[in-house]
Every structure is written in C-alpha cells, then in structure tokens.
Write a structure and sequence with these properties.
Strand order of the largest sheet of chain B: 2-1-3-12-6
Oligomer: heterodimer
Strand content of chain B: 5-15%
Largest sheet of chain B: 5 strands, mixed
Radius of gyration of chain A: 27 Å
Structural class of chain A: mainly alpha
Strand order of the largest sheet of chain A: 1-2
Structural class of chain B: alpha+beta
Number of helices of chain A: 13
Largest interface: A-B, 29 and 30 residues
Distance between the termini of chain B: 52 Å
Number of strands of chain B: 12
Distance between the termini of chain A: 43 Å
Chain lengths: 311, 472
C-alpha cells in the first residue's frame, strides 16, 4: 500500500517535471550549472583569453602601458637561441626523466609483487619522496650535493670521486636535476603500476605457467601488455608534470649554471616575474600549452592502449 | 609668509637652536614656529629631525594611520622598535609591511600603478629607481625638505653620489641626478669592502691588499689547512657576482661599462673591453684558491663560510659587517678586519631611498614619518642596534659608533666614493646583470674563457638593449 502511494507521488513529480516549460527547464539548468560555469569563466577562461591577448602585446613597466606588437613576441621567441636551448633542456628533462622513472617504477613494482618479507615497510619508505613539495626537495638536494659539506660528496669522496661539481658544472647539472626528479617521482610510477599489478586476473598467469612459460616470457608476453594502460597513464601524467616543472628547478639550480637547466616554465617565470616582460612570458606559456596538447595527442595515437576485457 | 628656511631670520634660527639645545621646550618651540608662520608639517619635520618632537601640538595627525612598505633587510627591526615613539611624538600609527627585495619590488609596482596606493611611503632600491621614480610614480619632496631645519643635515650629511642615486632623478632625461628630489636616502645604504682575517695575514706577514696582484698572491699564500685563500659570489646568475666581485675589480681597474646614452639610442655595452675581461680573468684566477663549493656560493653561503672561519679574505657588501663582527654569529669576530677595495677604494653604489607615491593618501603624515626614519637619531639607533649600513656621513664617521663598530669608517670611505652601476638608469638592469652573471659563471667553472664569456655577455646585453629601444 505504502509502495503504491510512493509510486503515485513519484509519478506526480515526474509529470510535473514533464509539464515544465522549456524556459523553466533552462532556468533550472542554469541554476545548477551556473556556479560551476562562473568559476570556470573567472578562473580559467578569462585568464586564458587575457594571457593570449597579452602574448601579442609588449608591456612597458615604466609607463605601465601595453602595446600591441602582433606576432613580435612569437618572432623573438622562435629566433632566440636561449629559447631553443630551453626547449632542448625541457625535452631532455621530460623524456629522459620520465623514461627512467617508468623503467625503474615498473621494475620496482614487479620486484615488490613477489610477496617478499618486509616488503610492506619498504614500500611505505619508497613512496615518501613523492609526499614532499618539489621546492623542499630542491633545497634539500642542494644541501646534500654541496661540494663543501654535502653528504653525497662525502660519500663520493669515500669511493674516490673527489669534489664532484654536481650542480656547478654545466655538463652535469641537467643530469643531476633529472636524477633528483627521478628520486622524487619514480615512486609515483611504482604505485600506479603496482596497484594495477595487484588487480590483474591470476588465471592468465596460471595458464601461462601451465603452458611452460618462463618468468621472463610471462613478464614480456603477459604481464607487461596487461600493465600497459597503467604504464601509459603514469607516463602521460608524469610527462605533463615534468614538462611544466618549475619549483624543482627554482629550488635546486635556479636555471643555472649558464642556463644549462633552464626549462620553459622557468624561462616564463624569469621573464614574467623577474624582468617584468609579461607579454613575452605569456608567449612562452602559450607555446607550452600548444606543445603539450600536440604531445599528448600524439602519445595517445602512438601508444595503443587496449581495453582489458575480463571475458 | 612662505614656509621656507630661505627666509629664516635670526628669530627663526634662535627658535631652532633653542629647541636643539634644549633651551626651549617643545611646546614653546611649536608656539614660536607657529608665530613665525611655519606650517604644522614643517614644524613636525623640524621636531622629527631634531629628535625633539612630542605628541602635543601636532593634533593634525592625531588618529592618522599610514602604511609603509620597507625592505626586510634588518631595517624593519629598528622601525618596529620606534613605532611607539612615532605614535607618541606625532600621533601617527604606522603599519609596516616588510618584504624581501623581490616581493617588495612586485608589491611596490602594483601599488604605484593602482588608482590609490595602499602605502603612503615606499622604500625604493637603487636599481629600481629608474623604473619606479622614472615612471613618474613618486611625489617631489623639494618643498618638504626645504622646510627642514639645518640639524636634519640635508643635503650635506648625505654623500653626493647617494643623493644622485636614490634622491634626485631627472624624469625628462630619464637619468639620475637633476633638481627634483623624489627620495631621501635610507633606510640603509651600503657598498662593498674587503673583509680579511687579520690573524692569518699577520701570521703570513701580509698586509691588506692594495693591488689586485697582492690580492691574488694573498689568496694563494693563505690557501690551505682548512681555510680557503679567498671567497667570492660565484653562483651562476647571481646578481651579486656581477655587482660585488666583478664590478669592484672592474671599476677599480678603471673600466667603463657603457658608451653612449639610452636617450641617444646608442647605449653600447663595453663588456669586451680589456678591463672587463681582465676583471673576470682575475676572478677566474682566484677560483683555485677558493672553496671547492665556491661555484655555488651566493651572498649567504660566502658570508657563512667566512663567519665560520673557513675563508681568509673576500669582497662583500659592507652591510654584512655587523654579523661578521658579532661574536654571536661569527667565530672570527675578533680576528676580522676590513679594508677598501684595491687600488682605488671604490665599490658599487648600493642603497635605498624612501619616498611618497603620487597616489598616496596621507602625504604630509608620510613625510613626517620619512623625516624621522631618515633622521640622524633613528639611523644611529638602527646602526648601533642592528648593524645595517647607514647612509649618513655623521653615522659612518661617528667616533662613538666606530668604537663599537670598527668597520664603519672604512665602509663610509668606500660609500663616499662608490659608483653607480651605469646601466641602473634603464628598466632592464636586473635582466642584464643576471645575463652577465650567467655567462661569467661559465668562465669561473672553466667551461669557457674569460674573453668568450665577456663576448657572450656583451652579445646578450646588445640584444636586450636593442629590444628595449636603448640601442639602434
């Protein structure tokens, strides 16, 4: 009886809704979507449009005026050697760093999947670096790498490598930066891949074992293909993050020595907030947005992610 | 009657002298100054400068609150200490915002360009004068300073070079100097001095270097036994590397940084000149006798190493002398001495000026506070208690202060002769200095020669100057 009354009430409500005029429905939709849309317009769309306009302008800090210069900033950017060096550093940092992180993270996930004793404690310790703020990581490693009193140089000295200029030599600074980034973010790849590994169906591994596949064959032909969606996700996520890295560079090397670790984000920051070249900084940011969009699209096209069908 | 000391007569002078010597009470002075036609602003300024101001008689400011933006470089401590004094004497509540250089510049720029500034007085770094004052964002102070009594010591107590740098600015020519005063030097100044360990020098039979050859020889001789022969700011891109270490060598070698002028659009860098290369080469030659980590040394790291007793000698901003001479923060406080940079005793002109934004709300009250914070009274208090570098000659060469802070007179001699870095008159100063410091670091790390580094820095400067319209 009660159910019948409830059904009737619901039916009445449904009919009332259906009776609502299109204007009323639009009103409701606006009311529901409005706050979210306003937020997006104010904090995403408006700044994006303004910075796009700024990328075609030049700011005069003395007169506090903006001057339209068309493609002037873009011309300057693409003809600047500094910019192309920065692109090169960013590419090395992104591709080199992420490749190492993916390989190491996946290897660690496979290793910890073997149900070793004490693995749970090691796993927790392993993920601690990614809980730190990158600027703190930068400052911390700057101390560890200090040639006078840094612990790493002390250790290197014990094994015969004296006075290693980790951050002062233009040829080693970028490698050091990548190393520190790997220290912090390999655990991220590890967690993603390890979580996926735990969720894989066991029957396929049992079938492979019955068929006489070795550990290497099982890993190569069964595990890795099944893990690929997780690996691609981790790589794309890390790639985007590494591409826009700023705080680690700021904390660890400040773009030096001799701009050998200057990345696109750092270049944008320096021009915008140190030299007050807001227009030029906006141009660098827009180039970054375009490169990131193209890069991600290509990556998803090249790396084919297969949907897992448990059936 | 005009409010000008140009028209002062015997009666005026008598009143001022009476107030300064204590013969007249503050109330009597205010009454007599009022009868002589001085405004309350002028009277407040006179009292502030003489350190004799009192709350009564200055009801004009009762209940007034002003906001000031100052550098968090030690000045804020002395200002905070004296807030109650300002309130008591002038009836003004002062809200203080103290920021490090970078954020301060950003904050100042935002406020100067807003319809109304949140700050009634702002401290301006010398290197940003061209940008901020040159942009026409500050009120002229000539009318205010004219009303100040002789005891305020303007302009005689300030080095002429400092007044040109962080005082007068010619907005038409866009250059330092001219006749319009926009800032009062303060709340601290500074140049560079050579810090050295007198115990190590004595033991090695050395005297403070008077030539760059002696400097290098001393570094070489003193290097070893856990002590670096010398130190420098060698971190890539660090502006102090250029300003402190390179420019001191360069200017004392007689180098000239630029030719032409931005106005004539022929402002040409001379970083490839023999003296520019020689200055950098001298730094390169000093690197082997510095700490292994010197290529990462910034201002703090270099100072800390010296204070820890790990360095025999360094050129450094004189404003760090206080902590180096302080036994609480330095292991070598009793072993340190200072000398002027060899051979000319010149250094970079540093320092700040304090002014009133054009869009400030409480200009007169702001002037009263500026007059107090740039007075002899406040500066001597600040210098003695917090050891920041002063700007006034009377503070640098005060006998009583030199007994307690023995570096002051030497720092004062360098400050008096200090030179404005020529490119400080264009807004791209920091970008250019940073670019040169990046290229110079390549020479210091051995990845390029001094001549190559200077050439690359020169090329980058040329690009920046062309972009800024200062060079065709």
């Amino acid at each position: 009886m009660a159910a019948t009354a409830q059904d009737a009430q619901l039916e009445r409500r449904g009919r009332a809704f259906l009776r609502a005029t299109p204007t009323q429905r639009r009103g409701e939709a606006l009311l529901l979507l409005g706050p979210c849309a306003l937020y997006l317009i104010a904090f995403s769309i408006y700044p994006l449009v303004v910075s796009l306009v700024r990328s075609f302008q030049d700011y005069d800090s003395r007169a506090n005026t903006w001057r339209w210069i068309g493609l002037g900033n873009y011309r300057e950017l693409f003809s600047s050697n500094e910019f192309w060096h920065t692109v090169e550093h960013t590419a090395w940092f992104t591709f080199g760093g992420v490749a190492i992180q993916v390989v190491l993270g996946t290897a660690l996930a496979l290793f910890f999947n073997q149900q070793l004793r004490g693995a749970s404690i090691v796993r927790v310790i392993l993920i601690l670096p990614m809980l730190l703020t990158p600027i703190v990581v930068g400052l911390m490693w700057r101390m560890l790498l200090n040639p006078d009193w840094g612990m790493l140089n002390w250790l290197a000295g014990r094994v015969g490598f004296h006075h290693v200029q980790w951050l002062s030599d233009p040829t080693t600074a970028l490698r050091t930066l990548i190393l520190v980034d790997c220290w912090q973010w390999t655990p991220f790849v590890f967690i993603i891949v390890y979580a996926r590994l735990q969720a894989l169906p066991q029957d396929v591994f049992e079938a492979a074992a019955v068929d006489g596949a070795t550990w290497f064959e099982r890993t190569r032909y069964v595990t890795l293909p099944l893990l690929m969606p997780a690996i691609v996700f981790a790589a794309v996520f890390r790639g985007i993050d590494a591409f826009r890295t700023f705080d680690l560079v700021y904390g660890l090397t400040n773009g030096g020595p001799v701009q050998s670790t200057s990345t696109l984000s750092f270049e944008a920051f320096q021009n915008g907030f140190e030299y007050f070249r807001y227009g030029y900084a906006s141009t660098i940011s827009y180039v970054m947005v375009i490169v990131a969009a193209i890069g991600i699209t290509l990556l998803f096209k090249v790396v084919r992610v297969r949907r897992l069908d448990p059936a | 009657m005009t409010d000008s000391l140009d028209h002062r007569d015997a009666e005026t002078m008598d009143a001022i002298e009476g107030m300064v010597t204590g013969r007249l009470s503050r109330q009597d002075f205010i009454k007599r100054a009022g009868l002589l036609g001085f405004s309350m602003t002028a009277i407040g300024g006179m009292l502030a400068a003489a350190g004799r101001a009192g709350g009564f008689g200055l009801e004009r400011y009762a209940g007034t609150t002003i906001s000031i933006l100052i550098a968090a470089e030690g000045d804020e401590k002395g200002v905070q200490d004296k807030l109650s004094t300002i309130k008591k004497r002038f009836g003004i509540d002062v809200k203080v915002t103290a920021l490090p250089v970078g954020p301060l510049i950003e904050k100042a720029n935002q406020n100067l360009k807003a319809p109304t500034s949140s700050f009634d007085a702002i401290m301006v770094l010398g290197f940003t004068v061209a940008q901020m004052v040159g942009g026409g964002f500050f009120s002229p102070l000539n009318s205010y300073v004219k009303k100040m009594p002789a005891s305020y010591g303007f302009p005689g107590d300030f080095p002429a070079g400092e007044l040109k740098y962080v005082g007068y600015f010619d907005t038409k020519k866009q250059d330092f100097g001219g006749n319009t005063l926009y800032l009062i030097p303060g709340l601290h100044g500074g140049s560079v001095v050579v810090f050295y360990r007198k115990d190590l020098f004595k033991a090695a039979g050395l005297k403070a270097p008077t030539t760059w050859g002696q400097y290098l020889a001393a570094a070489k001789k003193l290097h070893g036994n856990g002590v670096s022969g010398n130190s420098m700011i060698a971190k890539s891109g660090d502006v102090s590397m250029f300003l402190v270490d390179w420019f001191t060598r360069f200017t004392n070698m007689g180098g000239k940084l630029m030719s032409g002028s931005p106005q004539a659009k022929n402002y040409t860098p001379l970083l490839t000149s023999p003296k520019a290369v020689a200055a950098l080469q001298h730094m390169v030659d000093c690197v082997p006798f510095a700490s292994d980590g010197v290529l990462q040394y910034d201002f703090t790291a270099s100072t800390d190493a010296f204070s820890a007793g790990k360095t025999a000698m360094m050129i450094m901003w004189s404003t760090i002398a206080g902590p180096v001479y302080n036994p609480k923060s330095s292991k070598v406080s009793s072993k340190v001495a200072v000398s002027v940079p060899p051979p000319g005793g010149k250094g970079i002109r540093g320092g700040w000026g304090m002014g009133i934004p054009k869009n400030a709300k409480n200009k007169d009250a702001a002037w009263t506070v500026i007059a107090y914070l740039t007075s002899k009274e406040w500066e001597q208090y600040q210098t003695l208690k917090y050891q920041t570098d002063p700007t006034r000659k009377s503070t640098f060469f005060s006998k009583s202060l030199n007994k307690k802070l023995p570096y002051l007179a030497t720092a004062g001699r360098v400050f008096d002769k200090a030179e404005i870095v020529q490119i400080a008159n264009i807004p791209e100063t920091f970008e250019m200095i940073g670019a040169a410091a990046e290229e110079f670091s390549a020479a210091l790390s051995g990845s390029s020669s001094a001549a190559e580094a200077c050439k690359k820095a020169n090329d980058r400067w040329t690009t920046i100057l062309k972009r800024g319209g200062h060079l065709k």
